[in-house]
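Consider a protein example.
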Amino acid sequence: MEENMKKKNVKKQFFLVLIFVIIILIISSLLFPKQKKINNVSYSINFTKSNLGTKLEAYIKDSSYEADILKADGNKTIYGVINDTLENGNLFLTKGLFLYDIESEELKYYEFNEYSRVIDFIIFDNKIYQVILENDTEDSSIKWKIQVQELNNSISWIVKEGTLIDVFKYPRLFFEDDNLYITTLTNFEKNSEGYAKEKYSLSKIENNVLKELISYEGSLIKEEGILAYNIMNVKIENSIFYHTIVDENSIQRLMAYNIKNKENKEIKSNDSKNLILYSYIPIKNSMYIQYAYKNQTNRAKFEFDSKINESELNTFENKINKDCILFHNTGNRWYIYDTSNNKYIKLSNNRNNFYPKYIVLGENTILTEDFENNYYIGKIERN
Protein backbone atom coordinates (compact mmCIF):
# COMPACT_ATOMS: atom_id res chain seq x y z
CA MET A 1 0.00 0.00 0.00
CA GLU A 2 2.72 2.43 0.96
CA GLU A 3 4.71 1.47 -2.16
CA ASN A 4 1.68 2.24 -4.36
CA MET A 5 1.29 5.61 -2.74
CA LYS A 6 4.97 6.37 -3.49
CA LYS A 7 4.50 5.42 -7.15
CA LYS A 8 1.45 7.68 -7.39
CA ASN A 9 3.38 10.58 -5.83
CA VAL A 10 6.26 10.08 -8.29
CA LYS A 11 3.83 10.11 -11.23
CA LYS A 12 2.10 13.18 -9.85
CA GLN A 13 5.42 14.99 -9.43
CA PHE A 14 6.49 13.97 -12.97
CA PHE A 15 3.32 15.39 -14.50
CA LEU A 16 3.63 18.61 -12.47
CA VAL A 17 7.23 19.06 -13.65
CA LEU A 18 6.18 18.32 -17.26
CA ILE A 19 3.35 20.87 -17.12
CA PHE A 20 5.72 23.44 -15.60
CA VAL A 21 8.29 22.90 -18.39
CA ILE A 22 5.58 23.25 -21.06
CA ILE A 23 4.34 26.47 -19.48
CA ILE A 24 7.92 27.87 -19.39
CA LEU A 25 8.43 26.95 -23.07
CA ILE A 26 5.18 28.66 -24.07
CA ILE A 27 6.03 31.82 -22.13
CA SER A 28 9.56 31.86 -23.59
CA SER A 29 8.26 31.51 -27.13
CA LEU A 30 5.93 34.45 -26.56
CA LEU A 31 8.51 36.68 -24.91
CA PHE A 32 11.46 35.67 -27.06
CA PRO A 33 10.22 34.64 -30.50
CA LYS A 34 12.62 32.73 -32.67
CA GLN A 35 14.60 35.11 -34.82
CA LYS A 36 14.29 34.71 -38.55
CA LYS A 37 17.58 33.63 -40.08
CA ILE A 38 19.17 36.34 -42.15
CA ASN A 39 22.27 34.51 -43.31
CA ASN A 40 20.57 33.46 -46.54
CA VAL A 41 19.26 36.89 -47.52
CA SER A 42 19.76 37.58 -51.24
CA TYR A 43 18.90 40.35 -53.67
CA SER A 44 18.26 40.49 -57.38
CA ILE A 45 17.93 43.29 -59.92
CA ASN A 46 15.82 42.73 -63.02
CA PHE A 47 15.90 45.09 -65.98
CA THR A 48 13.13 45.92 -68.44
CA LYS A 49 13.61 48.14 -71.47
CA SER A 50 12.30 51.70 -71.26
CA ASN A 51 10.74 53.64 -74.14
CA LEU A 52 12.97 56.65 -73.38
CA GLY A 53 15.47 55.74 -76.10
CA THR A 54 12.72 55.52 -78.72
CA LYS A 55 11.35 58.92 -77.66
CA LEU A 56 14.80 60.50 -78.01
CA GLU A 57 15.45 59.19 -81.52
CA ALA A 58 13.77 62.23 -83.10
CA TYR A 59 16.37 64.49 -81.46
CA ILE A 60 19.47 62.37 -82.05
CA LYS A 61 20.01 63.90 -85.48
CA ASP A 62 23.61 62.83 -86.04
CA SER A 63 25.96 60.03 -85.01
CA SER A 64 27.86 62.53 -82.86
CA TYR A 65 24.73 63.40 -80.84
CA GLU A 66 24.37 61.75 -77.44
CA ALA A 67 21.80 61.98 -74.66
CA ASP A 68 23.07 62.59 -71.14
CA ILE A 69 20.73 61.78 -68.25
CA LEU A 70 21.37 64.25 -65.43
CA LYS A 71 18.97 63.44 -62.62
CA ALA A 72 15.45 62.36 -61.67
CA ASP A 73 12.89 64.48 -59.87
CA GLY A 74 11.48 61.99 -57.38
CA ASN A 75 10.16 58.91 -59.15
CA LYS A 76 8.42 60.65 -62.03
CA THR A 77 10.50 63.05 -64.15
CA ILE A 78 13.90 62.52 -65.77
CA TYR A 79 16.10 65.51 -66.64
CA GLY A 80 18.54 65.24 -69.55
CA VAL A 81 20.35 67.02 -72.37
CA ILE A 82 21.36 66.25 -75.95
CA ASN A 83 25.02 67.04 -76.69
CA ASP A 84 27.04 67.14 -79.91
CA THR A 85 30.27 65.38 -78.90
CA LEU A 86 32.26 66.69 -81.89
CA GLU A 87 31.68 70.37 -81.18
CA ASN A 88 33.04 72.77 -78.55
CA GLY A 89 36.11 70.73 -77.66
CA ASN A 90 36.05 68.54 -74.55
CA LEU A 91 33.03 70.39 -73.15
CA PHE A 92 30.73 69.29 -76.00
CA LEU A 93 27.93 71.42 -77.36
CA THR A 94 24.43 71.22 -75.89
CA LYS A 95 21.71 71.16 -78.57
CA GLY A 96 18.69 70.79 -76.33
CA LEU A 97 17.22 69.98 -72.91
CA PHE A 98 14.49 67.45 -72.23
CA LEU A 99 12.12 66.21 -69.55
CA TYR A 100 10.72 62.68 -69.66
CA ASP A 101 7.69 61.64 -67.64
CA ILE A 102 8.15 58.00 -66.65
CA GLU A 103 4.45 57.32 -66.07
CA SER A 104 2.93 59.02 -69.12
CA GLU A 105 6.06 58.49 -71.30
CA GLU A 106 5.70 62.10 -72.48
CA LEU A 107 8.92 63.82 -73.55
CA LYS A 108 9.27 67.63 -73.60
CA TYR A 109 12.17 69.09 -75.57
CA TYR A 110 13.65 72.60 -75.31
CA GLU A 111 16.13 73.80 -77.92
CA PHE A 112 19.36 75.37 -76.71
CA ASN A 113 21.00 77.78 -79.16
CA GLU A 114 24.15 78.96 -77.40
CA TYR A 115 27.64 77.70 -78.22
CA SER A 116 28.20 76.19 -74.77
CA ARG A 117 27.41 73.22 -72.53
CA VAL A 118 24.46 72.89 -70.15
CA ILE A 119 25.82 70.70 -67.36
CA ASP A 120 22.82 70.94 -65.00
CA PHE A 121 19.34 72.45 -64.98
CA ILE A 122 16.08 72.54 -63.06
CA ILE A 123 12.66 73.79 -64.14
CA PHE A 124 10.96 75.70 -61.34
CA ASP A 125 8.32 78.43 -61.19
CA ASN A 126 7.96 78.51 -65.02
CA LYS A 127 11.67 79.19 -65.44
CA ILE A 128 14.64 77.11 -66.54
CA TYR A 129 17.61 77.49 -64.19
CA GLN A 130 20.71 76.42 -66.11
CA VAL A 131 24.35 75.83 -65.22
CA ILE A 132 26.31 76.69 -68.37
CA LEU A 133 30.00 76.03 -69.04
CA GLU A 134 32.14 77.81 -71.65
CA ASN A 135 35.79 77.55 -72.65
CA ASP A 136 37.86 80.60 -71.79
CA THR A 137 39.58 81.79 -74.96
CA GLU A 138 42.42 83.45 -73.02
CA ASP A 139 43.63 80.47 -71.00
CA SER A 140 42.71 76.85 -70.25
CA SER A 141 40.15 77.71 -67.56
CA ILE A 142 36.38 77.23 -67.74
CA LYS A 143 33.83 79.99 -67.35
CA TRP A 144 30.55 79.10 -65.66
CA LYS A 145 27.33 81.03 -65.36
CA ILE A 146 23.93 80.54 -63.76
CA GLN A 147 21.38 81.56 -66.34
CA VAL A 148 17.62 81.85 -65.90
CA GLN A 149 15.27 81.66 -68.85
CA GLU A 150 11.53 82.12 -69.03
CA LEU A 151 9.98 78.77 -69.89
CA ASN A 152 7.65 80.08 -72.59
CA ASN A 153 9.91 82.60 -74.34
CA SER A 154 13.55 83.40 -75.04
CA ILE A 155 13.99 86.04 -72.32
CA SER A 156 16.97 85.13 -70.14
CA TRP A 157 19.40 86.71 -67.70
CA ILE A 158 22.55 85.77 -65.80
CA VAL A 159 22.37 85.42 -62.02
CA LYS A 160 26.05 84.74 -61.29
CA GLU A 161 29.32 83.93 -63.10
CA GLY A 162 32.65 82.43 -62.12
CA THR A 163 35.85 80.69 -63.23
CA LEU A 164 37.04 77.09 -62.81
CA ILE A 165 40.38 75.40 -63.33
CA ASP A 166 38.79 71.96 -62.80
CA VAL A 167 35.71 71.32 -64.95
CA PHE A 168 34.40 68.66 -62.56
CA LYS A 169 33.89 71.30 -59.86
CA TYR A 170 31.03 72.92 -61.74
CA PRO A 171 28.00 74.38 -59.87
CA ARG A 172 25.23 71.98 -58.86
CA LEU A 173 21.52 72.66 -58.42
CA PHE A 174 19.38 71.14 -55.66
CA PHE A 175 15.63 71.34 -55.17
CA GLU A 176 14.09 70.47 -51.80
CA ASP A 177 10.85 71.51 -50.08
CA ASP A 178 10.06 74.05 -52.82
CA ASN A 179 13.44 75.71 -52.29
CA LEU A 180 16.19 75.99 -54.89
CA TYR A 181 19.83 75.77 -53.80
CA ILE A 182 23.13 75.85 -55.66
CA THR A 183 26.72 75.04 -54.81
CA THR A 184 29.37 77.11 -56.58
CA LEU A 185 33.14 77.08 -56.66
CA THR A 186 35.12 79.87 -58.27
CA ASN A 187 38.87 80.32 -58.67
CA PHE A 188 40.25 83.85 -58.38
CA GLU A 189 43.34 86.00 -57.79
CA LYS A 190 45.12 85.11 -61.01
CA ASN A 191 48.90 85.50 -61.26
CA SER A 192 51.67 84.28 -63.55
CA GLU A 193 51.34 80.76 -62.17
CA GLY A 194 47.57 80.59 -62.50
CA TYR A 195 44.74 81.07 -60.03
CA ALA A 196 45.90 81.33 -56.42
CA LYS A 197 42.65 80.97 -54.47
CA GLU A 198 39.22 79.40 -54.51
CA LYS A 199 35.88 80.08 -52.84
CA TYR A 200 33.23 77.41 -52.31
CA SER A 201 29.65 78.36 -51.37
CA LEU A 202 26.15 77.08 -50.81
CA SER A 203 23.48 79.61 -51.79
CA LYS A 204 19.73 79.77 -51.93
CA ILE A 205 18.14 81.21 -55.07
CA GLU A 206 15.41 83.66 -54.11
CA ASN A 207 13.77 86.12 -56.51
CA ASN A 208 16.50 85.35 -59.06
CA VAL A 209 19.21 86.40 -56.59
CA LEU A 210 21.78 84.13 -54.90
CA LYS A 211 21.64 84.43 -51.12
CA GLU A 212 24.83 82.93 -49.71
CA LEU A 213 24.29 80.59 -46.75
CA ILE A 214 27.79 79.28 -46.04
CA SER A 215 31.17 79.53 -47.73
CA TYR A 216 34.81 78.47 -47.44
CA GLU A 217 37.91 80.11 -48.88
CA GLY A 218 41.46 78.91 -49.20
CA SER A 219 44.77 79.16 -51.03
CA LEU A 220 45.81 76.77 -53.79
CA ILE A 221 49.45 77.77 -53.40
CA LYS A 222 50.00 78.20 -49.66
CA GLU A 223 48.64 75.96 -46.92
CA GLU A 224 46.08 78.51 -45.79
CA GLY A 225 42.32 78.44 -45.31
CA ILE A 226 39.84 75.72 -46.16
CA LEU A 227 39.24 74.12 -49.55
CA ALA A 228 36.33 72.12 -50.91
CA TYR A 229 36.95 68.38 -51.00
CA ASN A 230 35.14 65.85 -53.21
CA ILE A 231 32.67 68.44 -54.47
CA MET A 232 30.89 65.89 -56.68
CA ASN A 233 29.58 64.09 -53.61
CA VAL A 234 27.63 66.90 -51.92
CA LYS A 235 24.05 66.25 -50.78
CA ILE A 236 21.06 68.11 -49.37
CA GLU A 237 18.59 66.01 -47.38
CA ASN A 238 16.04 67.18 -44.84
CA SER A 239 17.49 70.71 -44.96
CA ILE A 240 20.97 69.43 -44.15
CA PHE A 241 23.82 70.28 -46.51
CA TYR A 242 26.36 67.42 -46.36
CA HIS A 243 29.79 68.27 -47.74
CA THR A 244 33.50 67.62 -47.24
CA ILE A 245 36.36 70.06 -46.79
CA VAL A 246 40.11 69.87 -46.24
CA ASP A 247 42.03 72.23 -43.98
CA GLU A 248 45.59 73.58 -44.02
CA ASN A 249 46.77 70.46 -42.16
CA SER A 250 45.36 68.18 -44.90
CA ILE A 251 42.69 66.86 -42.54
CA GLN A 252 39.51 65.85 -44.40
CA ARG A 253 36.28 66.72 -42.62
CA LEU A 254 32.73 65.59 -43.30
CA MET A 255 30.40 68.45 -42.39
CA ALA A 256 26.63 68.87 -41.94
CA TYR A 257 25.25 72.39 -42.28
CA ASN A 258 21.68 72.86 -41.03
CA ILE A 259 20.03 75.29 -43.44
CA LYS A 260 17.27 76.15 -40.97
CA ASN A 261 19.27 76.96 -37.84
CA LYS A 262 22.61 77.81 -39.56
CA GLU A 263 24.56 75.34 -37.42
CA ASN A 264 27.58 73.73 -39.10
CA LYS A 265 28.71 70.50 -37.41
CA GLU A 266 31.58 68.15 -38.04
CA ILE A 267 30.45 64.53 -38.43
CA LYS A 268 33.79 62.88 -39.07
CA SER A 269 37.41 63.83 -39.61
CA ASN A 270 40.15 61.84 -41.29
CA ASP A 271 43.85 62.47 -40.76
CA SER A 272 45.01 59.00 -41.80
CA LYS A 273 48.15 58.72 -43.90
CA ASN A 274 46.85 55.54 -45.54
CA LEU A 275 43.17 56.34 -46.20
CA ILE A 276 41.16 59.06 -47.92
CA LEU A 277 37.54 59.89 -47.19
CA TYR A 278 36.07 58.62 -50.46
CA SER A 279 32.27 58.73 -50.15
CA TYR A 280 29.39 58.95 -47.68
CA ILE A 281 25.62 58.53 -47.52
CA PRO A 282 23.30 59.61 -44.66
CA ILE A 283 20.97 56.73 -43.86
CA LYS A 284 18.84 55.69 -40.86
CA ASN A 285 19.86 58.71 -38.74
CA SER A 286 23.46 57.62 -39.12
CA MET A 287 26.17 57.83 -41.77
CA TYR A 288 27.71 55.30 -44.13
CA ILE A 289 31.33 56.36 -44.82
CA GLN A 290 33.75 54.70 -47.21
CA TYR A 291 37.53 55.17 -47.05
CA ALA A 292 39.80 54.28 -49.97
CA TYR A 293 43.32 52.97 -49.36
CA LYS A 294 45.94 55.25 -50.92
CA ASN A 295 48.41 52.49 -51.78
CA GLN A 296 46.07 49.58 -52.50
CA THR A 297 44.25 49.53 -55.81
CA ASN A 298 40.51 48.92 -55.57
CA ARG A 299 40.57 48.30 -51.81
CA ALA A 300 38.54 50.16 -49.19
CA LYS A 301 36.89 49.94 -45.84
CA PHE A 302 33.52 51.32 -44.85
CA GLU A 303 31.82 52.00 -41.57
CA PHE A 304 28.25 52.35 -40.47
CA ASP A 305 26.95 52.69 -36.92
CA SER A 306 30.38 51.76 -35.45
CA LYS A 307 30.61 48.64 -37.66
CA ILE A 308 33.68 48.50 -39.92
CA ASN A 309 33.94 46.29 -43.00
CA GLU A 310 36.77 45.66 -45.44
CA SER A 311 35.75 45.42 -49.12
CA GLU A 312 36.67 46.30 -52.65
CA LEU A 313 36.25 49.97 -53.57
CA ASN A 314 32.53 50.54 -54.04
CA THR A 315 31.52 53.06 -56.70
CA PHE A 316 28.40 54.85 -57.92
CA GLU A 317 26.68 54.45 -54.57
CA ASN A 318 23.07 55.53 -53.97
CA LYS A 319 20.53 55.00 -51.23
CA ILE A 320 17.66 52.94 -52.69
CA ASN A 321 15.46 52.51 -49.61
CA LYS A 322 15.54 53.27 -45.90
CA ASP A 323 17.94 50.36 -45.20
CA CYS A 324 20.03 49.73 -48.30
CA ILE A 325 22.76 51.30 -50.42
CA LEU A 326 23.31 50.16 -54.01
CA PHE A 327 26.73 50.07 -55.73
CA HIS A 328 27.72 49.54 -59.35
CA ASN A 329 31.30 48.32 -59.30
CA THR A 330 33.86 47.58 -61.99
CA GLY A 331 33.01 44.67 -64.24
CA ASN A 332 29.29 45.50 -64.24
CA ARG A 333 28.78 43.99 -60.81
CA TRP A 334 25.95 45.19 -58.57
CA TYR A 335 26.23 45.07 -54.78
CA ILE A 336 24.02 46.08 -51.88
CA TYR A 337 24.96 47.00 -48.36
CA ASP A 338 22.01 46.15 -46.12
CA THR A 339 22.37 48.22 -42.95
CA SER A 340 19.60 46.28 -41.17
CA ASN A 341 21.85 43.23 -40.85
CA ASN A 342 25.30 44.57 -41.79
CA LYS A 343 25.40 42.42 -44.94
CA TYR A 344 27.36 43.24 -48.09
CA ILE A 345 25.70 41.23 -50.85
CA LYS A 346 26.23 40.73 -54.58
CA LEU A 347 23.03 40.98 -56.63
CA SER A 348 21.98 38.53 -59.31
CA ASN A 349 20.75 40.21 -62.49
CA ASN A 350 19.36 39.45 -65.94
CA ARG A 351 21.59 41.94 -67.85
CA ASN A 352 25.16 43.15 -67.35
CA ASN A 353 26.22 45.43 -70.24
CA PHE A 354 25.58 48.85 -68.70
CA TYR A 355 27.54 52.06 -68.35
CA PRO A 356 28.65 52.65 -64.74
CA LYS A 357 26.39 55.67 -64.15
CA TYR A 358 22.74 55.20 -63.14
CA ILE A 359 20.08 57.30 -61.46
CA VAL A 360 17.59 56.41 -58.73
CA LEU A 361 13.96 56.81 -59.81
CA GLY A 362 12.37 55.86 -56.51
CA GLU A 363 12.48 53.19 -53.85
CA ASN A 364 14.26 50.08 -55.21
CA THR A 365 14.07 51.44 -58.78
CA ILE A 366 16.85 52.76 -61.03
CA LEU A 367 17.39 53.86 -64.63
CA THR A 368 20.53 52.82 -66.49
CA GLU A 369 21.89 52.83 -70.05
CA ASP A 370 23.54 49.98 -71.96
CA PHE A 371 26.40 50.20 -74.46
CA GLU A 372 23.94 50.39 -77.36
CA ASN A 373 22.34 53.53 -75.87
CA ASN A 374 19.17 51.74 -74.78
CA TYR A 375 17.63 52.64 -71.42
CA TYR A 376 16.46 50.12 -68.85
CA ILE A 377 14.51 50.35 -65.62
CA GLY A 378 15.92 48.12 -62.92
CA LYS A 379 13.79 46.77 -60.07
CA ILE A 380 15.61 45.55 -56.97
CA GLU A 381 14.02 42.78 -54.93
CA ARG A 382 14.89 41.06 -51.71
CA ASN A 383 14.53 37.29 -52.16
Confidence is low (pLDDT under 50) at residues 32-38. Residues 90 and 282 are 34 Å apart (CA to CA).
